[in-house]
Write a structure and sequence with these properties.
The complex is a heterotrimer of chains A (322), B (331) and C (388). Chain A has 322 residues and is mainly α. Chain A is built from 12 helices and no strands. Chain A has 2 domains: 73 residues, no CATH class; 221 residues, Orthogonal Bundle (MetI-like fold), CATH 1.10.3720. In chain A, helix 7 packs across helix 10, helix 8 crosses helix 10 and helix 10 runs antiparallel to helix 12. The radius of gyration of chain A is 24 Å and the shape is globular. By secondary structure, chain B is mainly alpha-helical. Chain B contains 12 helices and 3 strands; from the N terminus they run αααβββααααααααα. In chain B, strands 2-1-3 form a 3-stranded antiparallel sheet, with no helix packed on it. In chain B, helix 4 packs parallel to helix 12 and helix 5 packs across helix 7. In chain C, the strands form 2 sheets. Chain C has an 8-stranded mixed sheet with strand order 7-8-9-4-10-11-13-12, with helices on both faces. A 5-stranded antiparallel sheet of chain C has the order 1-6-5-2-3. Helices cover 38% and strands 21% of the residues of chain C. Chain C has 388 residues and is of the alpha/beta class. In chain C, helix 9 packs parallel to helix 10. The termini of chain C are far apart. The chains are: A mainly alpha (322), B mainly alpha (331), C alpha/beta (388). Chains A and B meet through helix 1, helix 2, helix 6, helix 7 and helix 8 of A and helix 5, helix 6, helix 9, helix 11 and helix 12 of B.
């Protein structure tokens, strides 16, 4: 097991090199006077910061040489200074990570709570009206553009009915403290989380359904019934434990998806997280931040895969890594 | 005794004829159309194609035409008309739904319905081209990895992992920033975006195709082709390709939906198809203006609904195909 | 010959409508709650019987038509005896056993009619399993009637240990038994089926065991609650020949040890000869011949049974080729009204084109369904012989 993890981590590092090199090439595709052009109107960007970026990205060196020098800094978590925030990129990411993370975590919990029971239900009643409606709703969620869905929700609940706030994290004017503040934040998160959950739940739901269908046809489920187990236990114990195996592998891969989904949702609801900053960064040519953000997500993706693989071994006794 | 045998045989023939026997293709088609959602999806796509590609011929307006209005008389004036410089004539923005403009006009005074058609053209074309690009790369590399295995497989699969680890939208943000640096015109941007998306999405296709070919290689009939010693090219095109084809069709259908969704998201974020070109995604961008969001749903609701319907239809078809081809297949 | 496509389409549509109607009907029946006892209580014809199948009909409502997998099967399983059910694959033997367990895959598979009377000794009553409410059936399954399946590689749940799976079965039907006792019983069961390292196996997962070992585990699981009846559905088919013999030895030993009835389903006549007291021969969903093992072996009557006996390899006999019955099992949809076997039968006569022959008793235990033994005809033949 330990050997397997070490090998996986080594492969992940290799892949990370690949990702970073690819990203670096894209940066190097920039025209020479890019930084000067893009930052010309921005008073905040000092010549010093610009110089720092040139240094970090080795823009005046050759491609390979520049990459190596950038990598040297990246390993020390130095991605340069964000043009917008005028702080080291790592610091900016640390500062805004909690909001994005909280949003993603809440959304993920809700997605699983919805997707798994509904997926199982649909599979148990395959080809029934219930099954068709659940699958149709799941597909609807997958097909719904999140920005459009957010617009509808805002129009209906914030503008039309006025029951939920339009955007932002807290009601600044009210100045809540303590518990009231938490409630206020929760109130503000209802719509963003809804967008996340509805647009994200479909994939997991369908996956649960297909796997459950397969498991329900398995011989050991028939054995469980032949033992005299009530249907509830046949499904809840014997079938579910086997469905869990593929689901676990999917959940690890969901995390990065949630983070990049944040780019849209946070932007629409004006939540100050990593995603919204990324949008601002594009408009302000904040290459150092974008680069750091991308690398952060790439690391997250690989971590997710790794966690999936390890969990896989936990839930499936047949998997013994050697 | 002879008599009985003859009669028995006749009986058998008659009996066999009265059976309902379906060929595999018939079975797949039957299962596909039994799935009502899939049939609905197919019809929706056909309607969308007609609407976007044939519709503009029936529209009296063109994509970029801006309308003016004489505020005093309420008369609408075309932008080619000399009277637009007259006093009291303004751009006819956010016009309500009327017989002249079935969906009103947008914030720049252009006909929403006409732009909806042109936007659909862009969205559907982007989807198709990107799928073709990703299939070209994905099937080739996935096929090579699955067929040759060993070191080749190892290298290609690492490459797949690299492309898998890059979050698409954030990456697109960087690429867009670079494109801004070059000052690329919107016209060429469309092509670049299609190319970039295709290049970024091939990894999923390659992974599926490789998996399929690996499992096919283990099957007895492939081992039989090995044993009979037929040519490699024949082996690939006669035995492997027909067996991989269904999965490729299914991936292509589902990805068509996914790519249209992705493109619209990018356009919404402002890193995709850019003004003055219409795309369903950038038409929804109007919601960033809270007045439009609140008072003019005729501007932003139709393109959003179009995206939803099209993507949904592709997903229904893909789902139906998958169920019909192999109910147990996972994705 | 060309097949009319339009007519075929129409046929498929009609089948679909019919199936949906049937699914709904069965669903309604299955959904009922608080079924009064009077509906499923019944009387055994012979109190010495454990199970009496009476005109059992199990149908599958498929897309291409209704498959009458079991169509009017009647036979009895006496207490403490072994019944062998023999026939080619697809003849309905497994469906008969699954009907008895009420494990047919719904909504396609349904018991369409007939009774399965079960002499429930524990409650001193007889019930009709075909009508039993689900809750009651769950108490019988695994506890009073246990089943051994064909494919030992997949019948055990891969994610639970062997011990866990057998414990579960014991605990389910003996909820008050303390945990340590359950474990003891499981290990005892594992030892009973000839597993030497029972404690070690208790902690193992199914994938760590060989096919033969897994089948032993499945048998141990089936025996764990002292069932009245063990259904063994081709228990040795998926195993190596040497392992087959071992598993059969275990089953035979057990028969003496636990005094249960066994319903042995197989296509292997050799297995039946070794194990069974009574034999039922099935063909295309119907019983063609039944009798004691001796009668079937020494005096097979139905041309199908005769064919089966002929196609069996016999040691020390020098033959070039094994006999094989010509032709195939008929398609189970739209079976003809006449005898299903007549197209493959070498003794087919004019009369065979008539209705399906009824069961004819040749001796008190021996019955056959073939016109060859129709009383009128038999006496005819005798007369002719006498005349010569």
């Amino acid at each position: 097991m330990r050997q397997y993890i070490v090998r996986r981590i080594l492969i992940s590092i290799l892949v990370l090199f690949g990702v970073s090199f690819l990203l670096y090439i894209i940066i190097r595709l920039m025209p020479g006077d890019y930084v000067a052009n893009i930052t010309a109107g921005n008073m905040n960007v000092t010549a010093e910061m610009e110089q720092r970026m040139r240094e970090v990205y080795g823009l005046d060196k050759g491609l390979l040489e520049g990459y190596i020098s950038w990598l040297g800094d990246a390993v020390r978590l130095d991605f340069g200074i964000s043009f917008i925030y005028q702080k080291p990129v790592t610091e900016v990411i640390q500062r805004y990570l909690p909001i994005t993370f909280a949003l993603a975590a809440i959304a993920m919990v809700f997605e699983m709570l919805l997707a798994i029971p509904l997926g199982i239900l649909a599979a148990r009643k395959q080809y029934s009206k219930m099954d068709y409606s659940i699958v149709a709703i799941a597909l609807m969620g997958i097909s719904l553009p999140s920005f459009f869905f957010a617009a509808i929700l805002k129009r209906v609940f914030a503008i039309g009915l006025g029951v939920l706030p339009l955007s932002g994290m807290v009601n600044a004017r009210a100045g809540f403290e303590g518990f009231a503040r938490i409630m206020d934040i929760g109130h503000h998160l209802v719509l963003p989380v809804t967008v996340f959950v509805i647009t994200g739940v479909g994939g997991l739901l369908r996956y649960t359904r297909t796997n459950m269908l397969e498991v329900l046809n398995a011989d050991y489920v028939r054995t469980a019934r032949a033992k005299g187990l009530p249907e509830r236990k046949v499904i809840g114990k014997h079938a579910f434990r086997n469905t869990l195996i593929p689901i676990v592998t999917l959940v690890g891969g969901m995390i990065p998806g949630l983070f990049s989904g944040a780019v849209i949702t946070e932007g629409i609801f004006a939540l100050e997280g990593l995603g919204q900053i990324a949008i601002n960064a594009v408009n302000n040519g904040d290459i150092p931040y974008l680069m750091g953000f991308n690398m952060f997500l790439a690391v997250l993706t690989l971590l997710g895969t790794l966690v999936s693989d390890i969990l896989y071994a936990v839930v499936d006794p047949r998997v013994r890594y050697s | 005794m002879e008599d009985i045998q003859v009669r028995n045989e006749q009986d058998q023939d008659e009996f066999e004829l009265s059976q309902v026997i379906l060929s595999p293709t018939q079975l797949v088609l039957k299962r596909f159309f039994r799935n009502k959602l899939a049939a609905v999806g197919l019809i929706t796509i056909l309607v969308m194609i007609i609407f976007c590609f044939i519709g503009p011929f029936f529209s009296p307006y063109s994509e970029y035409e801006i309308f003016y209005i004489n505020k005093e008389t309420g008369e609408e004036i075309y932008m080619t008309d000399a009277r637009i410089s007259e006093k009291g004539v303004k751009i006819n923005i956010k016009a309500p739904i009327s017989t002249a403009h079935l969906l009103g006009t947008d914030a720049d005074g252009r006909d929403v319905l006409t732009r909806l058609m042109y936007g659909g053209r862009v969205s559907l074309t982007v989807g198709l081209v990107v799928v073709l690009v990703e299939l070209l790369i994905g099937v080739t590399l996935g096929g090579i990895a699955g067929y040759y295995g060993k070191a080749v497989d190892m290298i290609i699969m690492r490459l797949v992992e690299i492309f898998y680890s890059i979050p698409f939208i954030p990456l697109m943000l960087i690429i867009s920033a670079v494109m801004v640096g070059y000052g690329i015109s919107p016209k060429y941007k469309i092509y670049i975006i299609m190319f970039v998306m295709g290049v970024l999405f091939w990894a999923g296709v390659a992974r599926m195709v490789r998996g399929q070919i690996l499992s096919l290689r283990e099957m007895e009939f492939m081992q039989a082709t090995e044993a009979t010693g037929i040519r490699t090219s024949r082996k690939i095109f006669k035995h492997l390709v027909p067996n991989v084809m269904p999965i490729i069709i299914i991936i292509a259908t589902m990805d068509l939906g996914g790519i249209i969704l992705m493109e619209s998201t990018m356009s919404y974020l402002g890193v995709g198809i850019a003004f003055p070109y219409a795309s369903w995604g950038n038409m929804v961008t109007a919601v960033n203006n809270s007045i439009i969001l609140k008072n003019f749903p005729n501007i932003w609701l139709p393109p959003g609904v179009c995206i939803l319907l099209t993507v949904l239809a592709f997903n229904f078809i893909g789902d139906g195909l998958r169920d019909a081809y192999d109910p147990k297949m996972k994705r | 010959m060309a097949i009319d496509k339009k007519a075929q389409k129409e046929k498929i549509r009609k089948i679909k409508i019919y199936n949906n109607k049937m699914y709904k009907e069965y669903e309604k029946v299955n959904k009922r709650r608080n079924i009064p006892e009077s509906e499923y209580l019944t009387q055994m014809q012979d109190p010495k019987n454990l199970i009496e199948f009476d005109n059992l009909r199990s149908y599958f409502y498929t897309d291409v038509g209704t498959v009458k997998a079991v169509d009017g099967v009647s036979f009895a399983i006496p207490m403490g005896k072994t019944i062998g059910v023999v026939g080619e694959s697809g003849c309905g033997k497994s469906v008969t056993s699954l009907s008895l367990m009420r494990l047919l895959q719904g909504p396609q598979g349904q018991i369409a009619g007939g009774q399965i009377r079960y002499n429930q000794i524990s409650k001193k009553r007889a019930v009709d399993i075909a009508k039993l409410p689900r809750k009651e059936m769950e108490k019988i399954r695994g506890n009073e009637i246990a089943m051994i399946f064909q494919e030992p590689m997949t019948t055990l749940n891969p994610v639970f240990t062997i011990g866990n799976q057998i414990d579960e079965s014991i605990l389910l039907h003996n909820p008050k038994m303390p945990k340590s006792e359950v474990r003891e019983r499981t290990i005892e069961m594992l030892k009973l089926v000839g597993i030497a390292r029972a404690e070690g196996i208790y902690e193992s997962y199914p994938h760590e065991l060989s096919g033969g070992m897994r089948q032993r585990v499945v048998i141990a699981m089936a025996l764990s609650c002292n069932p009245q009846l063990i259904i063994a559905d081709e228990p040795t088919t998926a195993l190596d020949v040497t392992i087959q013999a071992q598993i059969l030895d275990i089953l035979r030993d057990l028969k003496d040890k636990i005094n249960a009835s066994i319903m042995l389903i197989t296509h292997d006549l050799g297995v039946v000869a070794e194990m069974a007291d009574y034999v039922v021969v099935m063909y295309a969903g119907r019983i063609v011949e039944q009798g004691t093992a001796k009668e079937i072996y020494h005096q097979p009557l139905h041309p199908y049974t005769v064919g089966l006996m002929k196609s069996r390899p016999i040691l020390n006999e020098d033959i070039d080729r094994l006999y094989s019955i010509p032709g195939n099992v008929p398609n189970p949809i739209n079976l003809p009204k006449s005898c299903y076997f007549k197209n493959r039968c070498d003794k087919c006569m004019e009369k065979c084109n008539g209705d399906y022959p009824g069961l004819i008793s040749v001796s008190p235990t021996h019955k056959v369904s073939c016109y060859l033994y129709d009383k009128g005809l038999v006496s005819d033949k005798k007369a002719k012989v006498g005349g010569k």
